[in-house]
Amino acid sequence: MMFSAKLKPFILVIANVAGAGILQKGLSGGDRIAVECIKYWKKKGINVTVMTSKSGHLIYGLKDARYMMIPTPTFQKYSVLGIVIFTFVALINGVKKALLFRNLDANTVVYSASDFWPDSIPAWVLKMRFRKVKWVAAFYFFAPAPFKISQDEEYRGGRMSFSLKNLAYYISQRVSYWLIRRYADFVIVSNELDKKIFVKDGVSPTKVKPIYGGVDIKGISTIPLQAPRYDGCFVGRLHPQKGPLELIMIWDVVCKARPEARLAVIGSGELEDQVRNEVRKRNLEQNVDILGFVDGKEKYKILKSSKVFLHTAILDTGGMAAAEGMACGLPVVGFDLPGYKFCYPIGMLKAPTGNIKAFAKLVLNLLQDEDLYYQVKNDALEFVQEWDWDKRAGKLLEAIKGLFGEKNEPS
After folding, report:
1. Cα R_g (the chain), whole angstroms
2. What does the CA dihedral 287, 288, 294, 296 come to, rounded to 10 degrees?
3. At what angle do helices 164-183 and 117-129 cross, to 10 degrees?
4. More reliable by pLDDT, 216 or 202
5. Domain 217-386 homologous superfamily, CATH
6. DSSP assignments along 373-387, one per residue
7. How many other C-beta atoms lie within 10 A of the C-beta of residue 244?
8. Looking at domain 10-214+389-403, which of 1.10.540.10, 3.40.50.2000, 3.40.50.10470, 3.40.1280.10 is its CATH number?
9. Quick check: helix, strand or coil at residue 311?
């Protein structure tokens, strides 16, 4: 699946990596998709340059990629003020870089890794300056309306919605959504539900494609089975959206039935102190290991030493972490979010959103019922083979080929 020599594009990836800039560790799902796609594009001989921050450069870890560095501040500790400072410094410097380009020809693809302003607005500036370039915009999550409590949030008293931070996020995303909807040549979303929103707002269905992310199937297969260590495992940012406090509540219920049950928590974020406090409050220090940010082979070893993957996201559109658990041979338990109907039809047992006891009961069912365990495990392993990164990146490359009027070849 190669481009003709005449049409082979130059791809400029704009990815400031806000989480890395503020936390100096961790990688969002959108950035993970960008990293894996860049690897695949380079294998296909496509010229790729990444425009990012210093911290983005460090965390992307693509040694053979070319970089254009955007000066941005970094922070040792998560803070709302840090987000604001990072956003505006990265935005201003990103726009400056976009204004310095002398020429981008019609074979150029500008790929913005998220709707975050320092990613999307410099891409829009380049599209306005060089109308023949192709802007491929990633848009992976619709911010919840700040004054409207969704069904998924009702049980939490709407605490995720009513904050200045979420209000600012919602307003800023309205701006980038309008720009992407009006000027992007192609939009990458995370599920069919988000595609329907774009189409309803006037975007052609042929210009929007769900990409559910991927998993390093080959890399995971090289990790041997590990000695059992954990009954459960969680991977994700310690952020309200991912439900880390609910995770500890769930494990408390599990431990009442299985006092020796152990949980591995992989991730970092703004709720880390609260999660640790919740563990202490519930006397779960011997049952929960908070391991921080772990990636690559070490993460897969931990997963392969676990029995069940707990995916406690409260608001999510496609989450790749659960697929990594499946690829490591773990049955998954999650909340019954609308998007999971499309991205996780099998391999995941689903509890009503916010129902802690129902979630814990499903975990216990898997730990106690061997037949159920292997049924869900085998479904997960079979299903996740379609999440191979090369297949996902290949589908996106096919979409880019279509922008140049090339017919897709059988893959």
Report:
1. 21
2. 40
3. 20
4. 202
5. Glycogen Phosphorylase B; (3.40.50.2000)
6. HHHHHHHHHHHGGGG
7. 26
8. 3.40.50.2000
9. strand
- How far is Cα 390 from Cα 18, in angstroms, rounded to an integer? 26
pTM of the model: 0.77
Three-class secondary structure of residue 53 per DSSP: strand
Q: Please determine, for residue 152, whether its predicted confidence score (pLDDT) is greater than 70.
A: no
DSSP label at 241? G
Q: Which two tokens stand for residue 116?
A: 């975050």
Q: What is the rounded CA–CA span in Å between residue 240 and residue 347?
A: 24
In angstroms, rounded to a whole number, what is the distance separating the alpha carbons of residues 224 and 208? 39
User: Mind listing the pLDDT tens digit for each residue in 26-64?
Assistant: 567 778 888 888 888 888 888 888 888 877 777 676 766
Place of tokens 């002398």: 102
Per-residue DSSP letter, 156: G
Q: Using CA atoms, how far apart are residues 175 and 87, in angstroms rounded to an integer? A: 14
* Residue among 351, 127, 372 nearest 250 (CA): 351
The SS3 of residue 200 is helix
pLDDT in tens, 337-395: 888 888 899 999 999 998 999 999 999 999 999 999 999 999 999 999 888 888 888 88
Q: What tokens does 79 get?
A: 């803070």
Residue 322 dihedral angles phi and psi, to the nearest 5°: -60, -35
Cα–Cα distance, 229 to 308 (Å, whole number): 11
Here the tokens at position 134 are 């192709």
The backbone region for 222, taken as left when phi is positive above 0, alpha when psi lies in -120 to 50, beta otherwise, is: alpha
pLDDT in tens, 134-144: 999 999 888 87
Locate CATH 3.40.50.2000 in the chain. 10-214+389-403, 217-386
